[in-house]
Amino acid sequence: MFKWKARWTAPSPAAELQPAQPQAPPDNSLLGTQVRILGRDSALTIVDAGAQHGHTTEEYLDAFPYGRVIALEPESTNHAAAEIRLAAFADRVELIRAGLSNSNGVADLHLTSHSGAHSLLEVGDMRHYDEPVAILAPQRIETVALDRLCASRNIDVLDILKMDIQGGELMALRGAGGMLERGAIRLIALEVLFQPLYRLQPTFWDLQQHLQRFGYAFQGLYDVKYHDANPAVLRWADAIFVAPTMTALT
Questions:
Q1: Closest CA to 143 of 171, 182, 183, 114
Q2: Neighbour order of strands in the sheet with 99-101
Q3: Integer Cα distance of 98 and 96 in angstroms
Q4: β-bridge pairing 158-163 and 45-49
Q5: Which residues contact 213 (CB under 8 A, 6 or more apart)?
Q6: Which pLDDT tens digit goes with each residue over 179-204?
Q7: 192 exposed, middle or buried (CB, 10 Å; 0-12, 13-18, 19+)?
Q8: What is the pLDDT of residues 110-159, one digit of tens each?
Q9: Is the pLDDT of residue 67 over 70?
């Protein structure tokens, strides 16, 4: 549900003669804020959990030209699409067919007719979706915990953890307890839910309270989505949290 692309404008004839350059994200967007906080020219290590078709991974690679992304997408069709999209980035990206969770193992991924709505949790109240989704047969997938994923790759500090995993965020954060305890994830960008789109899902406040225990600070909400039928109902948004070391003032 992340939407970072700026509005497209037609290039001038002179511009068409130049090599295409990635368009910088707006400063006040979700991605633009991450660039502003961490710096475009930094050699960052990023985990993109819930990569779907690879769009957000591609945007990270464009926004941070010296960065490297470990992308996780567990669903087979989505993973195949991401493989094609990200092939040109070669060793700047590692694509793993697994879901981020609280432990290494296997689990059922609950599939729906919307490729961006697959979840480790069952679908909840469909009144909060943009349109009805059909429930499909689940797919057995591998799961990985962030602590173990980073340890296996000798990653002491993760610059960005991005999660768009449809209600599975708290499970994933529990699998990152060691890194959170050390403040070793500098910035977390994730989708947060305010309504029960999935059964037994955490809300924004659950995630905020969990991260606050480790000293993480809430930085802001982005791409806020209200219910089309009732603008008083906040459904979901994207959020940024930062590690304690990121908020120090000199």
A1: 171
A2: 99-101, 139-145, 105-109
A3: 6
A4: parallel
A5: none
A6: 999 999 999 999 999 999 999 999 99
A7: buried
A8: 999 999 999 999 999 999 998 888 999 999 999 999 999 999 999 999 99
A9: yes
pLDDT band at residue 21 under the 50/70/90 scheme: low
Domains and CATH numbers, the chain: 43-247 (3.40.50.150)
Spell 120-154 as b/e; 16+ CB within 10 A means b: bbebbeeebbeeebeeeeeeebbbbbbbebbeeee
Mean pLDDT value of segment 65-69:
97
| CA-angle at 134, arms to 129 and 135, nearest 5° | 105
pLDDT tier for residue 250 given thresholds of 50, 70 and 90: confident
Q: Are 179 and 150 in contact (CB under 8 A)?
A: yes
In this structure, the chain runs to a length of 250
Count CB-CB contacts under 10 A for residue 56.
24
What is the rounded distance in angstroms from the CA atom of residue 66 to the CA atom of residue 10?
28
